[in-house]
Amino acid sequence: MSRMNAMFKKLYKLVLVVSLAIFLFIVFDEIHNLDNNSKRYLSEHYISEGVQETGAINIVTSVLYDYRAFDTLGEATVLLTAAAILSFLVPLGKDKMLGTTFTMIVSQTTKFFIPFLAVLGAYLILFGHLAPGGGFVGGVVMAVIPILLTITYRVEFSEYKFKPAKKKLAEDIGAIGFILLGLVGVVTGSNFLANGQANFGPGNTGELISAGLIPFLNLMIGIKVGAGLAIIFNSLIKEK
Amino acid sequence: MMDIIFNMLMIFLVITAFFMVFTKDISTAVIALPIYGAILVVIFVILQAPGPAIAEAVIAAGLTTVFFVITINKTEY
């Protein structure tokens, strides 16, 4: 009986996962093969008109920063709140992390890695409207730099290079700049965070400075995500 | 040829994900996470998104694994 019970327990998890997978497969198959096209008019509109309306080649970016920019603002506010609460709650102290001391190879390799990470993060942020990527991914890559410094050297060195006050300032600039850029749409006589519908043109599609507000919004989100993630990591590693 | 490689990689992705969920040792699961990320990098390259591929390599191999290792270290597992 107990053997049956053990076998049932083993099968139980497997059946749960497989049934969830089958359910999701059926749901996505059903969505993909909808016969009635009137239910998909929004995605049809995004795909066929998105490039002309917003000027961004990357349709995901055009949905994220133009059609649904208000949701992105909420998403960014969640991250700001998390970073602020964490840096407020976690006490200041020494890190009690790993007892290991790294060899010279690790510290030298870290030193050579950091410029590549900076270039990659800047590329992902600035070309967010032309190629896959965007502010969130680029910000995370930028945040890897202080995290690498924290892991390889100590948290003191990382906070000596990137001062916490400056990181907080950068995050505030990102959060406030996003809202101020949204107000540009109001000033030009349209809605909040309007880009394609506003009166300034989207520019030549395919150039670096085009698509209206989207590159600047990407830059703000990138600064904000990078600074916020670095603050969160450095706060959590100092926790006892 | 490319389709076969792509489908094989997808199947390996599912196998790695199942391995991560059902393995007993928690550190084995953590080390299986970068393998999942590496397969995802190749899939991104096949889908013609080289930028996110490099970012995924950085994030999966560097950030996520480090987060989990430090968490296990701090909770004294």
UniProtKB/TrEMBL annotation, chain A:
MrpA C-terminal/MbhE domain spans which residues?
A: 34-84
Query: Per UniProt, which keywords does this protein have?
Result: Cell membrane, Membrane, Transmembrane, Transmembrane helix
Q: Give TM segment ranges.
A: 73-92, 112-130, 136-153, 173-193, 213-237
Query: Has keyword Transmembrane helix?
Result: yes
Keyword Membrane recorded:
yes
**InterPro entries per the UniProt record, alphabetical:** CPA3_antiporter_subunitB (IPR050622), MnhB (IPR007182), MrpA_C/MbhE (IPR046806)
Instruction: Kindly report the protein's main subcellular placement as a broad class.
Output: membrane
The listed locations are: Cell membrane
Q: Which domain of life is it from?
A: Bacteria
Q: How does it sit in the membrane?
A: Multi-pass membrane protein
| Residues annotated as domain Na+/H+ antiporter MnhB subunit-related protein | 105-229
Query: So what family is this one in?
Result: Belongs to the CPA3 antiporters (TC 2.A.63) subunit B family.
Q: Which NCBIfam families match?
A: PRK08386.1
Query: What PANTHER family does its record include?
Result: NA(+)/H(+) ANTIPORTER SUBUNIT B (PTHR33932), NA(+)_H(+) ANTIPORTER SUBUNIT B (PTHR33932:SF4)
- Provide the protein name: Multicomponent Na+:H+ antiporter subunit B
Organism name? Aquibacillus albus
Q: What is the lineage of its organism?
A: Bacteria, Bacillati, Bacillota, Bacilli, Bacillales
Automatic annotation (TrEMBL), chain B:
Q: Which UniProt keywords apply?
A: Cell membrane, Membrane, Transmembrane, Transmembrane helix
Keyword Cell membrane on entry = yes
Asked if the Swiss-Prot or TrEMBL record annotates the protein with the keyword Transport, the reply is: no
Check the record and name the Pfam families matching this protein: MbhD (PF13244)
The record ties this protein, via InterPro entries, to: MrpA_C/MbhD (IPR025383)
Membrane-spanning ranges: 6-22, 29-47, 53-72
Q: What is this protein called?
A: Multicomponent Na+:H+ antiporter subunit B
Q: Which organism is it from?
A: Aquibacillus albus
Q: What is the lineage of its organism?
A: Bacteria, Bacillati, Bacillota, Bacilli, Bacillales
